[in-house]
Amino acid sequence: MKSIGELFVDGYGIMIFSADFLNEYVKKNHWKSKRILTFFNKNKDKYYQTIKDGILLPFNKISTYDYNIFIKENEDNDKFDSLIK
């Protein structure tokens, strides 16, 4: 297993997403911003809609425990195509 770093609960939290899916979603919705976090802070409704549509999976206010997060890379993403169309 490969370690990609450490997370700490005193920060902002963590958000899991596919960069490809998020980029397609942003293009589909014609959003213009180079700073996605700033964009979402100014447009809370769009942030919540992106979560509702399954593009983002945020984890905030997590408890202080050790967590193992497993991520598979280079998966076949055909089953998620409906999320971005």
Structure write-up:
The radius of gyration is 15 Å and the shape is globular. It is built from four helices and two strands, in the order E-H-H-H-E-H. The chain has helices spanning 19-28, 36-42, 44-52, 81-84, and strands at 14-17, 56-59. The model has no long low-confidence stretch (mean pLDDT 78). The protein is an alpha+beta fold. The protein starts with 13 loop residues before the first strand and ends with a helix.
Short description:
Helix content is 35%, strand content 9%.
Characteristic terms for this protein:
35% helix; two-stranded antiparallel sheet; 9% strand; alpha+beta; 85 residues
H/E topology pattern: EHHHEH
Radius of gyration: 15 Å
- What would the average pLDDT be, to the nearest integer? 78
Q: Which segments are poorly predicted (pLDDT under 50) over 5 or more consecutive residues?
A: none
Strand content: 5-15%
Helix content: 25-40%
- List how many beta strands DSSP finds: 2
What is the helix tally?
Answer: 4
- The protein's oligomeric status is single chain
Distance between the termini: 34 Å
- What strand line-up does the widest sheet have? 1-2
What structural category arises from helix and sheet content?
Answer: alpha+beta
Note the overall shape: globular
Major pleated sheet = 2 strands, antiparallel
